Amino acid sequence: MGAALQRLGRRDAVVLATKAFFPMSDDPNATGSSRRHLIAACEASLRRLQTETIDLYQLHHPTNEVPIDETLRALDDLIRAGKVRYIGTSTFAAWQVVESLWVAHEYGLNRFISEQPAYNLLDRRLEREFIPMAQTYGLAILPWSPTAGGFLTGKYRRGAALPEESRYAAFWQGGVRRVFTAAAFDVLDVVEQIAQERAATPAQVALAWCMNQPGITSPIIGPRTLDQLHDNLGALALSLSEDDRARLDAVARPGEMSAPFYGEDGFAWTAWGPHRYRW
How far apart are CA 3 and CA 180, in angstroms? Predict the structure, then answer.
């Protein structure tokens, strides 16, 4: 990415986002949301990205091991130093975001402005609490896996072998048992029917649905090829009708799930329990 930004020569036209939390080495201190790690990880990202500032610096996951005020003070210092412009979270529970807003207000610190959760037609539990919270407090929502790891693109079939080099074959094999359910394939059937009627692809239907849901700012796409990128961008021109959305709601019920992505039973490791340390 750093090399691409240098070739492009238009860094100011790019909104550059990255995340920190997981280890990048076998150093036991090089992980988590401590002040030490977040500052070191930011400096390393700036070097790799060959830039002076990160537009959106996100915590990749919550933790119960570090008080939120330590984390926020470190991120606030990075903003004041000009190394970061905005801060966000990923896979946080609604109560953890609200706690962070409370701490930021109490201590006069920069607040989180976005959250990156799992959200797609197979798992709509985000709608129960998190989306109303984000709308109330003005947080952007940037869903990851809007096509359910490629499941909603139609490349996976009932009872068929996994395509070689696909996401589930390559590194999500543990998720096959949880995701490849009869209910999930029922959702895919309706997605494919609408795609055929609309002269679109299933991926475009899944993306168009996600990006136009209340409270959603922008889904995160993960194309591996240029053709996939062009296909994903085609979702911008697709407008689903009220009838389309009603048909999807009938098989992918609001606030419910057909396969777990969001939450502690989803793909992401989460730490939604009580903190070990108070702020």
Answer: 38
pTM of the model: 0.91
Residue 133 lies in a domain: no
H or E element, residue 47: helix 35-49
Q: Two tokens at 248?
A: 């999807």
- Pair 251, 268 in one domain: no
Answer whether 248's CB lies under 8 Å from 121's CB.
yes
Long-range contacts, 171-179 (Cβ 8 Å, 24+): 172/267, 175/149, 175/267, 178/259, 178/260, 179/122, 179/148, 179/149, 179/151, 179/259
Angle between helices 182-197 and 242-251 (to 10 degrees): 170
Give the Cα separation of 99 and 80 in Å (integer). 22
- Whether residues 208 and 96 share a domain: the answer is no
Q: Name the token pair of 264.
A: 């502690």
Residue 127 placed within a domain:
no
pLDDT in tens, the chain (279 residues): 999 999 999 999 999 999 999 998 899 889 999 999 999 999 999 999 999 999 999 999 999 999 999 999 999 999 999 999 999 999 999 999 999 999 999 999 999 999 999 999 999 999 999 999 999 999 999 999 999 989 999 988 887 777 777 777 666 666 677 788 999 999 999 999 999 999 999 999 999 999 999 999 999 998 889 999 999 999 999 999 999 999 999 999 999 999 998 887 777 667 888 888 888
Strand partners, 57: 18, 87
3-class DSSP string for 113-136: EEEECECECCECHHHCCHHHHHHH
Tell me which amino acid residue 239 is.
S
